[in-house]
Amino acid sequence: MAEKGALAEAPPVAVPKKAVRPWHPRLLLEREEVLGYLLMLPALGLLTVFVVYPFLYGIWLSLTDSRIGVPGNFVGLRNFLELTRDSIFQQTFRNTFLYTGVTTVFKLIFGLAVAVLLNNTFPLKRFVRAAVLLPWIVPTVLSALAWLWMFDSTFSVINWVLARFGIKGPVWLGTNPWPMISLMAVNIWRGTPFYAISFLAGMQVINQELYEAAAIDGASRWQMFRHITLPLLKSVIIIVLLLSVILTFSDFQLIYVLTRGGPANSTHLFATLAYQVGLPSGEIGLGAAISLFIFPALCVTVFLTLWYMRRQELD
Description:
By secondary structure, the chain is mainly alpha-helical. The chain has a domain at about 95-280 and about 295-315: Orthogonal Bundle (MetI-like fold). It has 17 helices and no strands. It has helices spanning about 1-10, 25-30, 30-60, 80-85, 85-120, 125-130, 135, 140-150, 155-165, 180-205, 210-215, 220-230, 235-250, 255-260, 270-280, 285-290, 295-315. Helix 13 (about 235-250) runs antiparallel to helix 17.
């Protein structure tokens, strides 16, 4: 009986748990860096399929003499060298830089002006701010078709208005240099709201006490804009300019709907010329070379912009 009581009172023997190895899936998922990469895999997969692979394949095509339906052979940089000797490409090169430079400057000026106006207090302020975005949010093709009607050589509403003042309007899309001027005007009209709303968002976070202190010191509105608004908006301005330059360089829809690169290939940009050479003409290798011709310059621009912004933050 004593032995039975002793056995009954003996504490239970602890069974050692099986050690979990450090590379066990459960432990790996508890690590934030591992779980973060796993959650990123679907997005990385989509980017690889729809961005990385087409981009790399486009680089390969630009180094071949491929045609539609014909794989072609590797030719190295021959396509790029041929483009430098082509008169149409030379005109396209000038058009792209002129188009991007002029429209970017005007969008910056008009965008700042509109943002300053919208930053004030006035009746129906919210409605006006929303209405300003309309040129930007309307599908590009629809707005381009409306402008195509306004630039029509027979039914142009712009020429009709000019005729009321005794002014004979030009053939907007038919006689140089008016086609390129018309394209620039439409791009400025469409892109200015993006600049304005972006700058307005930046102005909203500026401390109003800075303006109040400047007003007490007798600063004018121009002085406050120059010494307070512009310096504090510098980062926003740089980012907006960078995005705008990239998008303007690759502009396609406006040009294709309004002029299709005409008259006589005088309004082509890189995107429209690449389309014309690569698909209707079938020279898909040469078309890929056109679309990638300016890519190194854009990479350098992005790198220098980000480097400058990083340097400003450190200073």
